[in-house]
Specification:
- This protein is 4% helix and 48% strand.
- The chain is built from two helices and 28 strands.
- The protein has a single domain (5-348), classed as YVTN repeat-like/Quinoprotein amine dehydrogenase (Methylamine Dehydrogenase, Chain H).
- The strands form seven sheets. It has a four-stranded antiparallel β-sheet with strand order 3-2-1-28. The chain has a four-stranded antiparallel β-sheet with strand order 4-5-6-7, with no helix packed on it.
- It is mainly beta.
Length: 352
């Protein structure tokens, strides 16, 4: 159960001088935004966006944050350096940074609170245990472009881009299809081939129980595609086009929508109920410098736009209702990533 907007403001007013130990208030859902300019996590109550608190990461030496994942009141932040910081959203950073063996580009946290970090450029991933405060490593041949969970199974999406220079012109072509590898303790299960243009990345579970995997391809004029994978039969059952070049971000609203975002195509929509593209390339909601896409527990969508990270061109969080009607945005200096967490209402009022 979560506190709605009308209860939240009253709770925060009462809890203004509350101690830092929880008195048992119900959790509230918060948008956790990583602002790179201030090197901080900004906590924003989803039901009352004027209720905000921040957690500074600026005192951590040689650390510029760029990736974020969160579950409950625990977050993991990874920098442009090979370091991971564990953060208690009610108290701040926990312990010294964990050293990683490379700089990841993808970070994912399971419901069990274990974080996984990988990169298409390396044949290994980092497994981060916030409770044990340890980072271990696991081999994943082909490099990791993203992660996904469906029906309790955790998959690494293998981008098959090891050795590719993503910054080169024309874009790097790995000349190989992508696949899924189910992650297990100590070993990986049999792979699941993914059709389409390759360079597969992030994946989300749909309300139909399927895992939807975004295939980015090599950019224009090549079109990205959406693969639907059945985690029971361990097979791709369909592939859908219509998303234009380079689709990068994906999220599920938990109801019927699979949302997809890119710089070129904007915010697009696929119906998992009807298995069709509802809002594709050319009809998407225009976006500016998208850096992340996520949804909350009731299906609202949030698009992180980092802007120019300057006073004249700050970033913002675009907020869309369950009907994709846009509400007031949230302005921040330089948001680069976001996640959804939960904190007790009384503790939320004391985070600073």
């Amino acid at each position: 159960m979560r506190i709605r907007a009308t209860h939240l403001l009253a709770t925060l007013a009462i809890a203004g001088c509350a101690p830092t130990t929880s008195t048992g208030t119900l959790p509230i859902e918060v948008l956790v935004v990583l602002d790179q300019a201030s090197s901080s996590l900004v906590l924003i109550a989803v039901d009352s966006t004027e209720a905000r608190r921040s957690i500074s990461l600026a005192e951590i030496p040689d650390f510029t944050p760029q990736l974020l994942a969160a579950r409950g009141n625990i977050a993991v932040v990874i920098g442009v350096q090979p370091k991971a910081v564990i953060v208690d959203l009610t108290a701040g950073p926990i312990g010294p940074p964990l050293l990683l063996n490379f700089v990841p580009s993808e970070l994912f946290m399971t419901d069990a609170g274990i974080a996984y970090a990988g990169s298409p450029q390396f044949d290994v991933l980092n497994r981060i245990d916030p409770v044990g405060h340890v980072a271990t490593f696991q081999s994943v041949a082909g490099g990791v472009g993203g992660f996904g969970v469906a029906r309790g199974r955790l998959y690494a999406v293998v981008a098959n881009r090891v050795g590719c220079d993503e910054a080169q012109t024309p874009p790097c072509n790995a000349d190989g299809q992508s696949w899924l590898t189910e992650l297990a303790v100590g070993a990986g299960a049999d792979s699941i081939p993914i059709s389409g243009p390759g360079n597969a990345g992030r994946a989300v579970a749909g309300p139909d129980g399927l895992l939807y995997v975004l295939n980015r391809g090599d950019g224009a004029p090549e079109e990205g595609r959406l693969s639907a994978v059945d985690p029971i039969t361990n097979a791709e059952i369909a592939s859908y086009g219509g998303f234009g070049p380079g689709p990068r971000f994906i999220a599920s609203d938990g109801l019927a929508r699979i949302l997809i975002a890119s710089q070129a195509g904007g915010l697009m929509e696929f119906s998992a109920r009807d298995r069709r593209v509802v809002r594709g390339f050319g009809s998407g909601i225009s976006l500016r410098t998208p850096a992340d896409l996520l949804t909350d527990a009731v299906g609202r969508a949030y698009v992180v736009e980092f802007g120019g990270c300057t006073a004249d061109n700050p970033g913002r969080i675009r907020v869309f209702g369950t009907d994709l009607v846009e509400g007031p945005d949230i302005s921040l200096p330089c948001p680069v990533a976001a996640a959804v967490g939960e904190v007790p209402a009384d503790l939320f009022a004391t985070v600073n």
